[in-house]
Design goal:
Layout (H helix, E strand, L loop, with lengths): L1 H15 L8 E5 L7 H7 L2 E6 L10 E2 L8 H4 L3 E7 L8 H10 L1 E12 L16 H10 L2 E9 L2 H10 L10 H23 L1 H5 L9 E8 L11
Parallel strand pairs: 1-2, 1-4, 2-3, 4-5
Antiparallel strand pairs: 5-7, 6-7
Helix pairs in contact: 6-7
């Protein structure tokens, strides 16, 4: 998932968010440990991180939830770019979240959102959604954003490998046959995941079907007034 998303997010940035105008600002929503910060600053953006909790390095600039009314300190801010990578599956109130994402964009600003379509439960109990491309388009457009593109990250092989890597094998009963089959299956599963990680199977065989790991959606804010405040 991680290299696939990194590639697609950087592709979307190159297609829709460059060249970067002078003093352009980016808001990284759900920034966590800020894995995209170096790349975004390298493109020329002034970086601001937002998350629901402070991170270990205490580098989150704005601590709030994106699906609740924004605090006064945030309401006057406006950004040329907002990125929200693998966050919205943990956000319960999507209408409020998309309204907030649109509100902090300048007119003409770009929003890049990714959200898993297939992935195991994580960060429970705050794991709510596995949206389709149609859901992302619907909520973005309902918030007044123009959908520029929605692409998928990963294919059926990636989905298969992700599923295999998250399960373990255990015998159903304590018999020689059950233990032997379980051991053989576990060994085969580990070998298969290793081959998939190296791309060996994908080199020779294509799995066809509407299966993939994540959605990457890019929106633009068109028209309307927006705040132009600075960070406190």
């Amino acid at each position: 998932m991680v290299p696939l998303l990194k590639h697609q997010v950087e592709r979307a940035l190159g297609t829709h968010a460059t060249p970067v105008p002078p003093a352009a600002r980016v808001l990284d929503v759900g920034c966590g440990e800020q894995p995209f910060r170096r790349h975004l600053e390298g493109l020329g953006f002034r970086y601001t991180g937002l998350d629901v909790v402070q991170n270990a390095g205490e580098t989150v600039d704005i601590v709030c939830s994106i699906d609740e009314p924004l605090p006064p300190a945030v309401q006057g801010l406006a950004f040329d770019l907002v990125v929200c990578v693998e966050v919205l599956e943990h956000v319960a109130d999507w209408p409020q979240a998309f309204s907030n994402l649109a509100a902090v964009l300048r007119p003409g600003g770009i929003l890049i959102v990714t959200c898993p379509h297939f992935y195991q439960l994580h960060e429970e109990p705050f794991d709510f959604w596995r949206p389709t491309p149609h859901a992302l388009r619907f909520f973005g457009e309902a918030a007044g954003l123009q959908c520029l593109e929605i692409v998928t990250a990963g294919d059926a092989w990636d989905l298969f490998g992700t599923a295999l890597s998250t399960v373990t094998t255990a015998p159903r009963e304590e018999t020689i046959m059950a233990r032997g089959v379980t051991k053989l299956l576990g060994l085969g599963s580990r070998c298969l995941v290793g081959l998939l990680r190296r791309g060996w199977l994908q080199r020779y065989t294509r799995l066809e079907g509407p299966l993939y790991l994540s959605n990457v959606a890019t929106f633009a804010r068109t028209g309307g007034a927006s705040g132009d405040g600075e960070l406190p």
